[in-house]
Amino acid sequence: AAMANAIVEAVPIHQTAEATSVNAIVRTIGGSIGTAVVAAVIAANTTPQGLPTDRAFTAAFWVCTGVGVLAIFASLALPSKRRLHDEAVATGVEDVDAQDDAVAAGMQSV
Asked: Tens digits of per-residue pLDDT, 56-75?
């Protein structure tokens, strides 16, 4: 839910549906790719009988750990609501929420 809230706060109100949809699609594709990568790592480390070794699960764990660390750094790079507000004020927008509401109202009347 935290990612969905961050997305809703980061986009204009009239683009909320598109942004949350893209998030759902990317999350699904990421899960599929992640599962395939972990399965490949485990399948690459098997016994002659075809069973995964302990080393296979350890390697898969480290792959997941590496991805988690990358995700932490990516989340730290996301703009905060305060930074977005400060940037909007610097460009001459006095009330960001009011501007989003006005844009949404304009889109509804079209």
From this structure: 999 999 999 999 999 999 88
